[in-house]
Every structure is written in C-alpha cells, then in structure tokens.
Amino acid sequence: MKSVIIAATMLLALGAGHNQPSQTHPSCAFGLPLNPVQCRRLEAGPHATTSSWMTHSPGTLLYTSQPLLGAVDVWSVSATGFKSVGQLSVGTGNLPFGLTVDAHQNLYVAISTFGSGTPSVEVFPHGATKPSAVYTAGLKAPIDVAVDGKGTLYVTNRFSAGGGGCGASSGPGGSVVEYDAGSTSPSRTITGFPGCPVGIAADAKGNAYLTYVYYPATGTFLQSDVIEYPRKSTKGKPLGLQVPGGPQLGGIQIASNGNLVIQNVQDDATLNQILTFPPGSTKPSNTIQYPGTGWGTGFIFFALTGNRIFAPAYIAPNFSFIVSTPAEFAYPSGRQVAVQSKLGGPFSYGFAVSPPK
C-alpha cells in the first residue's frame, strides 16, 4: 500500500509539470491536465474542524478517508447530494485507510504509517473530533476494520505498510487481529491464509469474512478468495467463489439479507465491479459493472447501507485512482444517484456510513 501512495504522489508531481492547459485554475488538482469543467468540481472541499459537528448533521453521515492528507472527510448526505461538515485529522505521516461504523455510530479508522509513528485503529464517537480509544497492540499496518454485533473489532493487518509478504517465496503477508468488546488487547490473531489480507466484514452473529490476494510464483495467476471464520475461531473455510474476470477481491460488505457484496478488479486492474453472493452460493447473483462513468477504476473499499452504495467516482479518467470524489449509487442496480461536485483532497479511499440518530 505504501507503494501505491508513493506512486500516486509521483503522478501528482508529474501532472503538475507536463501538458498543463493554460485555462487550468491554479488550485485545480495540483496542476493535473484537467478541463475547466473538471476543475470547477475541485475548487472547494472539506475543512478541518476542532469542534463537534454533530448538532449540524442530524441525518446520514458519510466518512471518506484521505491517505495523502492524513485525514477523514465528513459529509452530510441528503436527497440533493453531499455537504462537507468537517474533517478529522489523524496526524501528519499517518495513512488512514479502511473505515467502519459500529451499532453505536462510533467511527473506526485503520491507520498505517510510513515508518515513523505507531500503526493503530482510532475510534471517534459520533460528532467527536478526538478519538475516545486507540488500538495499537498487535498492529503493524492496518488496512481495514469491521465490528460485529457483539462489539468485537476485527482488523486486517498487512505484514508491512508496503504490502510485502504476498509472494510465494515470502509466506503469509499479514494477519487478522481481533479485540473483544471493551478490550484494546488482542483476543485472537488469525494467520495462515495465503498472501495478503485486504477487506474484512462481520455479520450479526460474529462470523468474519476476509478477502485476500496472493501473488504466486512467476507464470501463475493471482489468487483471491473469501475465507469465512466462525465467531471466536481462528480456523477458516475458503468459500471458493467463482469470480468473472479476475479474481482480485477487495472491499467486502454484508447486506441486510446476509448476501456478501464484494469489490473485484478485473481485466488487468483496468475495470471494477461489485459482486453479490447469496449465502452458500459460489456464483454471483448480481454484478454491478464499472460502466465508464461511475466509480473510479482504482477503488477498493465502499460502503453499503440498505439499497445505497457509496464509492468513489472519478473526475478524470486518466487519474481516476488518485483524483476521485464520493458518489452514491443505487443497490443492486448500480445507477448513479449523486456525485460530490467539490473535492477536498486527492482521492477518497475508505468509506463508512452512519445512519440518522
């Protein structure tokens, strides 16, 4: 993941120095070669806040992480779209990735680092600008988080911030660290799965579902699947999902009816889709295909609540994985409902939704 951030930073620098159109606004996406319409969508965005925004945002809230800024943007969601209501800082040099919200609407943020600092998961109560709890024990490079109905916290933990350990010669590339409700000390650690852990989800019964990617020896295809772990068990069962055009599975959510809803990258990392697998099925019952105008091609994580999906939408096809903005899509049709017209940072990465209190 560290290499992704470095690559994104390099592309931003390259874009600022080459093929810059004369009509580009000075504040437009770090000088990337965007047209005036695209630039107008980027002229303003979230602002850092030191006071509670809860009283100003009684409705649905959307959280989006900004790894390059060390921050989490907070949006109020309505029928007319998105409104910025604040930005939570996790500190310079920290990389916020996956997000989740528990039953009490506390926000959990998976935070990796560039080498200095302490990898952690920070917990922000609804409306708070400072964390009420910080998890550090057992964490090396957190990338995603989930909380089940009993308050157990699950963290997918990379072997290193750079994503090392995925290859056949280097062994497992990380772990899933679990914390029982009320404890910041690890209760269980899951290891022994192939490659690198990516997304994690947990159902109301406490069963956990892990996506992973594995880069085997040269000449063989990338492997990816979902492993199901019963509550409090470190022994999992691969689901053997049949994924068209892949698989390279990432973010995972559980629908209200128990369906697994999973992001997949297909066609050599150029196309994205969201797949729905009913309980017990290895074949998707529904596919939301990247159509060329919806979410960006480089996203991993998304949020699902009821019949609403929140995921990135790009503002420029050539830079979709580093310049994107939050959008809402209907589920399961994938129809685009709304797109945030102003961007506060390079790209939206992790997503979480908090329903009205």
Describe this structure in words.
The protein is mostly beta strands. It is built from 2 helices and 24 strands. It is globular.
Top keywords for this entry?
357 residues, mainly beta, four-stranded antiparallel beta sheet, 2 helices, globular, disordered N terminus
Element layout with pairings:
Elements (H helix, E strand, L loop, with lengths): L1 H16 L18 H5 L19 E7 L4 E8 L2 E9 L4 E8 L5 E7 L6 E5 L8 E3 L6 E6 L5 E6 L15 E6 L8 E3 L5 E7 L5 E7 L8 E7 L7 E2 L10 E6 L5 E7 L4 E7 L8 E4 L13 E3 L2 E7 L9 E7 L5 E4 L11 E4 L3
Structural class: mainly beta
Mean pLDDT: 79
**How many DSSP H or I helices?**
2
Largest sheet: 4 strands, antiparallel
| Global Rg | 19 Å
Gross morphology: globular
SSE sequence, one letter per element? HHEEEEEEEEEEEEEEEEEEEEEEEE
Helix content: under 10%
**Head-to-tail CA distance between termini:** 34 Å
* Strand runs, count: 24
Strand order of the largest sheet: 3-2-1-24
Instruction: Give the DSSP E fraction (strand runs of 2 or more residues).
Output: 35-45%
Low-confidence stretches: 1-27
